[in-house]
Design brief:
The protein is mainly α. The protein has 2 domains: 5-118, no CATH class; 150-247, no CATH class. The protein contains 13 helices and no strands. The chain starts with a helix and ends in a 7-residue tail after the last helix.
């Protein structure tokens, strides 16, 4: 998505917050990783100019088989900037990034760094729910936000009071694509949602089954262009499958 002025400012601030971490000249890695080649690629352009195909070979294995936390902090601003602009690369998917943040115990990081992460994810979620679903999928950011153990309530409330038809279509798409994982009782079948705290899972279930969500989808029926009305109808089909008994 194209970041609005607020999100762009937060991206710029993010670079500033993590600027104390220099580009690594060496990295610890598994014998399976060619760190010489990785570092050569990662040093081939200034951080903000690294393309997705240049940073992804590192981002996809960071903190598991290559690099340490300080290395990741150096590249994190660019990875998140790419996550905002395009999600073509596995290592720069919002959910991929947050799983590494959890692995790196980001809640133990300095306050300034935590604040930058919270602010950027909050702004990205606030913007993505306004994007047309053909351009961006809100579910990736919403799941990432929940994985960070952040309080989803303000984002969910904002979603419901947003008058944009695109927000309603994003909700319909979420109901069709993501809700099935939220309502899955077998945690091993929840995909990325398996990393979300159980309390937040139950909050999402109650929210999805609540009258305000049903009301928003009903209102969308009369406002949705014919080309996307199918998405709303599919959302109602999905909603019918999520019985209140599955709240527990």
């Amino acid at each position: 998505m194209q970041p609005d002025d607020q999100l762009q400012r937060l991206i710029d601030d993010f670079y500033t917050a993590f600027s104390p971490y220099p580009r690594p000249h060496t990295m610890h890695a598994s014998p399976l990783r060619d760190t010489v080649a990785l570092l050569k690629t990662l040093s081939s352009a200034p951080l903000r100019n690294l393309a997705g195909e240049q940073i992804d070979p590192y981002a996809s294995y960071a903190l598991t088989t290559v690099g340490d936390v300080d290395d990741y902090k150096h590249f994190l601003p660019r990875m998140l900037e790419l996550a905002v602009h395009e999600q073509r690369w596995p290592g720069t998917q919002p959910t991929s990034i947050v799983l590494r943040l959890k692995r790196a115990r980001w809640l133990d990081w300095p306050t300034r760094e935590q604040a930058a992460i919270r602010a950027l994810f909050d702004a990205a979620c606030s913007q993505v729910i306004l994007a047309h679903p053909d351009e961006e999928e809100a579910g990736n950011w919403i799941c990432a936000y929940a994985c960070l153990d952040l309080d989803l309530a303000p984002i969910l409330e904002q979603w419901l009071v947003t008058p944009s038809i695109d927000a309603a279509l994003q909700l319909a798409q979420f109901m069709q694509h993501d809700a099935k994982f939220v309502f899955e009782n077998d945690t091993s079948e929840r995909a990325i949602w398996s990393y979300v705290d159980e309390t937040e899972i139950h909050r999402m279930r109650r929210w999805l089954l609540g009258p305000p969500v049903h009301k928003m989808l009903l209102a969308a029926r009369g406002r949705t262009p014919p080309s996307h009305l199918w998405l709303v109808e599919k959302a109602f089909d999905a909603l019918a499958d999520f019985r209140p008994a599955r709240l527990h």
